[in-house]
Amino acid sequence: MLPDDILYRCGDGYKKNIREMSNAWNQTQRMKRLAVGSIAAPEYIEWWGRRINDNISGPSQGDKKSLLEIQNEKGELKARVAELEKTLYQYRNRNSVIEL
């Protein structure tokens, strides 16, 4: 059967019938949520809170660094950046001399 034949046999009210069925289904779902939600809300909220907290991982022992170690690493990285900038400046100067 072709889709056009189906629509013809259903008549002009097929959209109305589908809309009515959809609205009835949505209303049923809302009523279920309302009825179950008021009963299970405290337990559900508690469960949801535990679920979220269980998914958050704390810092592992391998990731812990002291503030002093982090500051030292930051200083070393700044020194490396300064060294690379100096090298880049020298390279550009050498290239500009070669172009002249």
UniProtKB/TrEMBL annotation:
Q: What is this protein called?
A: Uncharacterized protein
Q: Where, if anywhere, are coiled coils annotated?
A: 67-94
Keywords attached to this Swiss-Prot or TrEMBL record, sorted alphabetically, are: Coiled coil
Domain of life, per UniProt, equals Eukaryota
Organism from which the protein derives: Gossypium davidsonii (Davidson's cotton)
